Amino acid sequence: MPSKHTRGKAALSTVPRGGRRRRAVYVFTEGRVTERKYILAIKELVTVPADIHIANEKASDSDRMPADLVRDALALMAEKRREEKKAQLKKHMLTQVWCIFDHDGRDRNELVSLLKQAQNGGVDIAFSHPCFELWRLLHLKQATGTFDGDCSRAAVRLPRELHHVTGGIKHLVPEQIRGGFVTARTRAEALRAQHSEGKPLPDCDPYTDVDRFVEKGMGVTTY
Fold it and tell me: What is the pTM of this model?
């Protein structure tokens, strides 16, 4: 039976008239607004060579904890793999399932467990410590110091004008990220290089690998 996230939709996505089938990517986001706005902003700025679906777009705030995301993503991933095996899809066309969530002061051991579960089930994670706002910040400036899982310490560093857009700080718009991906990725790589190989991600402060989602998931290398 189709999952609650794909019920009523074509299992392997239909091919546009006169076009070619594109790889499907399903994304479970912890935030209801910012991550979705970010994905939409990228799609406004560049052509995205994949069909991106916000898998939990209609989920309530109470159903957006990392444990909810990983549970539902693993179920969807298993469902897609069964469908794709039957359809004999080639490897480069296999569906990707992603979760985007943050440390945000959560229990360290729970996060370690969730990241391991996702890895074992073939689900990709874009993880940030303290939160997604760090990735936004890296488009504009380098991040120094640690955040101790406190998202407000990252959000307060964002320029004042970003706090005054219609809808508030969570409503990311394309102009806030235009031309910033390569710089943000370089800064994110530098942050990751500060941490020893194999160090659990919840212990890495600061940390973000949202650039992996952009490149591997969306198939975008610049915007």
Answer: 0.90
